[in-house]
Write a structure and sequence with these properties.
Strand order of the largest sheet: 3-2-1-4-5-6-7
Number of strands: 9
Order of helices and strands: EHEHEHEHEHEEHEE
Shape: globular
Largest sheet: 7 strands, mixed
Bound molecules: 5-O-phosphono-beta-D-ribofuranosylamine
Number of helices: 6
Strand content: 15-25%
Distance between the termini: 16 Å
Radius of gyration: 16 Å
Oligomer: single chain
């Protein structure tokens, strides 16, 4: 399956997929393209280092629908069949989500449906939660609401800060995405009534 990764920044989750791929753990997934909407995204260096094509599409001053159409045209050109959102800080238009229904995977640093949105760690700490974690899910047209593929838990310590908690959750994120992608790329994920069923190999 031809996969595009969309990222806006650091790209450590992108790197975890590159590493898994190079270890031979993504036999059915081919990382063919990185799309960034920030020119200084560190993800670009990672793509270059591993010979993955990348493109920059500027979102500034553009209507969301126009920006998404530009992305869709590129994804079509690359014959992309699956999309990974790895720290892509843009909400996708309904058109985009419909075009790739149940073909877009996102990772979010909380145990959804708890703490959706841009401040998951801060919100988990403010709620005095005793655990958090990360969630890989399909993207629908809500924010962090799509069908859940898998989750990894992390215990919250009383002295955790946003930084310490996010660092520990990130370790789990780097395990979760490489675990979810092969399930998807080998067509083992079935969405029924908004729930994901994992089919046996
Ligand atoms: C991660 O915490 C991810 O859960 C969230 O954005 C962050 C991206 O980090 N969606 P990176 O760019 O992959 O390092």
């Amino acid at each position: 399956m031809r996969i595009a990764v969309l990222a806006s920044g650091r790209g450590s989750n992108f790197q975890s997929l590159i590493d898994a791929s190079e270890r031979g753990e993504l036999p059915n997934a081919n990382l063919v393209l990185l799309v960034v909407n920030k020119k200084n995204a560190k993800a670009i260096e990672r793509a270059e280092k591993h010979n993955i094509d990348w493109i920059f599409i500027d979102h500034r001053g553009k209507d969301r629908v126009v920006f998404d159409k530009e992305m869709m045209d590129k994804l079509t050109e690359y014959k992309v069949e699956g999309i990974i959102l790895a720290g892509f800080m843009r909400i996708l238009s309904t058109d985009f989500v419909i075009q790739y229904k149940n073909r877009i995977l996102n990772i979010h640093p909380s145990l959804l449906p708890l703490f959706p949105g841009a401040h998951a760690h801060r919100d988990a700490l403010a709620a005095n939660a005793t655990k958090s974690g990360c969630t890989v899910h399909f993207v629908d047209d809500g924010v962090d609401t799509g069908p859940i593929i898998l989750q990894k838990e992390v215990i919250i310590n009383p002295d955790d800060t946003e930084e310490t908690l996010s660092n520990r959750i990130l370790i789990q994120e780097h395990i979760a995405f490489p675990e979810a992608l092969p399930l998807f790329s080998s067509n083992r994920l079935k969405v029924i009534n908004n729930k994901v069923e994992i089919l046996p190999p």
